[in-house]
Each structure stands twice: as C-alpha cells, then as structure tokens.
Amino acid sequence: MILDYTWPDFLEECRKCTNCSLSATRKNVVIYRGAIEAPLMFVGEGPGANEDEQGEPFVGQAGRLLTLLLEAYGFAPRDYHICNIVKCRPPENRVPTRDEAKCCMPLLAKQIRFAKPKVIVLLGATAYKYFLNPTEPISKARGKWIEKSKFLILPTFHPAYILRNNRERVTLWQDIGLVRNKMEELGLIEPLPKLPDMPSGRG
C-alpha cells in the first residue's frame, strides 16, 4: 500500500468505485462499522436493503441478531470491524456473482490492512467461498479454525440463515463463544468474569 494512502483515501476510493454493475443500482457504498483498527473482523456477504439505505453493514434484522450475540459475549465496538465481501447491494438481495466479488476483493484487501485483525470470522457460505476458495461446504468447515496468511479464520453461519433456521441459533452462539475464547487465549481481549447463558434454540 502506498505510504501516504490514508483511511479517508480508502473511503473515498470505495465511494467512487464503479468497477462492477452494482454501482449503478446502489444508494450507498457500505464499507464498515465498529473500529477502523480492531483485533476482530467479521466479513459477511453483501449489503441488504437496510444497509444500502443507511450506509452501514449489518443494521437490519440479521445485524441486530449479530449485535445481540456480540454484546452477550462482552464485545464492544472497539473490539471489531464489520464489513462484507461486496460493498454495494446486489439487486433483490441476490448472492453476489464471482465477478462482482472479484471486483471488490482488492478493496477488501486494503481494508484488512487498515483494520489489522488477528481473527477473522466469515459469516455465511458466500463469504466463506469467496474469501477462502474452499473445497468443502461451510456445513463441514464451520466452527473450525483455519490459519492462513497470519490470520486465524473461523467460518460460521450467517445471522440471516439463523433467522430462517432457528434450530441453528445455538450453533452460532457457540461459534461466537469460540471466538471469545480464542481472543482471550491470545491476549487480545480481557477475560469475561462469567460466560453468558446459552439460548435454548426455541422461540
């Protein structure tokens, strides 16, 4: 990265980006929420309608579930940086195409260099597929740590999937617990005095 290339420069580059057709239908470029530099990064799929409207990732129903889990495990906004594979909403909330993801990945690479995470959580099959180019499905990889390029990476289910499949709520809860434990183990966050109670998976 060019030495005098700053975070405001990065934001401006994102907002001016027209590298794929998603730029033609967006309301806002959705870049991040949380801290600019943080030990923990969450990478989702792409913005939905709420995110496109507000210009921040994970602010809709799925985002509220993620925030609830993070707060339950004692994570504060200073601890994490939340973003997506693509920064513009795909029409009708469809899955981003490989070409769209490919256009956006250089920006994500720059974003990672600014955020300097130690732990990266991939939320959902799309983030997992485009970030790692894996050979096995997320159903087999979720909850397992992957070490790559000096990062510890954990694939897990997307909160939107949990909203459609409530029986998996405990699975996502457990995976966020794994993240909390790993960060405490690495000295990236102060230990919790008491682990939160796990939901029953009902209701």
What portion of residues is helical? 25-40%
Assembly state of the chains shown: single chain
Got a strand count?
6
What class, by secondary structure content?
alpha/beta
- What is the fourth-level CATH superfamily? Uracil-DNA glycosylase-like domain
Distance between the termini: 48 Å
Q: Strand order, main sheet: write it out.
A: 1-3-2-4-6-5
Number of helices: 8
Low-confidence stretches: none
Descriptive account of the structure:
The chain has one domain: 3-Layer(aba) Sandwich (Uracil-DNA Glycosylase, subunit E). It is 40% helix and 13% strand. It has 8 helices and 6 strands; from the N terminus they run αββααβαβααββαα. The protein has a 6-stranded mixed β-sheet with strand order 1-3-2-4-6-5, sandwiched between helices. It is globular. The mean pLDDT is 94.
Lay out the secondary structure.
Layout: H1 7-16, E1 33-34, E2 40-44, H2 49-54, H3 61-72, E3 80-84, H4 98-115, E4 119-123, H5 125-132, H6 138-141, E5 146-148, E6 151-156, H7 159-164, H8 169-185
Helix pairs in contact: 1-4
In short:
The protein is of the alpha/beta class and 203 residues long. It has eight helices and six strands. The chain has a six-stranded mixed β-sheet with strand order 1-3-2-4-6-5, with helices on both faces.
Offer a few descriptive terms.
6 strands, alpha/beta, six-stranded mixed β-sheet
